[in-house]
Amino acid sequence: xxxxxxxxxxxRCAASPSLALVKYWGKQAGGVNLPATTSIxxxxxxxxxxxxxxxxxxxxxxxxxxxxxxxxxxxxxxxFDNLRATLDHDAxxxxxxxxxxxxxAGLASSSSAFAALAFGCxxxxxxxxxxxxxxxxxxxxSGSAARAVxxxxxxxxxxxxxxxxxxxxxxxxxxxxxxxxxxSGPKSISSRSAMSxxxxxxxxxxxxxxxxxxxxxxxxxxxxxxxxxxxxxxxxQSYLRMFCTMFTAEPPIVYWLPETVAVIRACERLRHNxxxxxxxxxxxxxxxxxxxxxxxxxxxxxxxxxTGNGEILVVGAGAGPRLIETGAVT
Length: 330
Ligand code: PMV
What we know:
Elements (H helix, E strand, L loop, with lengths): L2 H4 L3 E6 L2 E5 L4 E2 L5 E2 L3 E5 L5 E8 L6 E4 L2 E2 L2 H15 L4 E8 L9 H16 L6 H11 L3 H4 L4 E4 L7 E4 L7 E7 L9 H11 L3 H20 L3 H20 L10 H15 L5 E3 L6 E6 H12 L6 E5 L6 E5 L4
Parallel strand pairs: 7-9
Antiparallel strand pairs: 1-6, 1-16, 2-5, 3-4, 5-10, 6-9, 7-8, 10-11, 12-14, 12-15, 13-14
The structure holds (3R)-3-hydroxy-3-methyl-5-(phosphonooxy)pentanoic acid.
The site of (3R)-3-hydroxy-3-methyl-5-(phosphonooxy)pentanoic acid has 15 residues, from helix 3 and helix 6.
């Protein structure tokens, strides 16, 4: 069968977001979305981006819609240009994507979106590429997406083209992430703009870069030993140092809301009472709290008291991208 014959007209697939426990924040020169810091992450269960990719025969029909809304093609063109060059295949796609969770609100939707897109486009072309190559393709769309092509626990090293898995999802099956969605609206400033403004203007950016490798190593060791206290303390330093670069950017970037601080305080109280509840945050006001299956109900209850009408989600470590179906073979 030649390449054309193997193409699938339609491919539907799903990918889950990659939650950074130690953050990627800042880019290195010399490539697209090359991370300046090593990040350590967990792919989340239950939350998914579901993406349908259709091969189309012309540039004019090429488009991406998220929840029915046509996306700015410039945002996606580096991804598609690189995809075509990497696979050495001139192809055009019509893409429809939906998220089972709030989009653009700091819940890592770009990680699952570009992981699903990379997976869906390669499958639509009849290619099954190794995860490392899929990770490089997804990274060009969004740095964090390089990690979301794997399930379980992952590392994206500073300067790396691709992420790698450090442990499968079953490695820590009673780990839970309790997510307090304090505001489900889109964020005021995108993570990519916030990242570049922090890098360009914060006097603490250099310290952030210099100190992050140690946090990544501590977090990775803690994951391998399933040590939630050690992971929690590395995680906490990572998000607070990252936010220091945002608070001290010019103009400052403040995603936090009053409910955000109330949830952080609730975590402190839980820990004071001997309950593991270690928070982290991304580019948005939501708070994600790691705990264990035994305590997740108590943690969810405590967090819901602080968030008013905000949604509380309880998830665990999840799998990498999955194929839902492929359509007619040409
Ligand atoms: O992948 P991006 O460009 O959306 O940036 C992700 C940045 C953080 O979510 C804040 C951290 C991370 O490592 O995922």
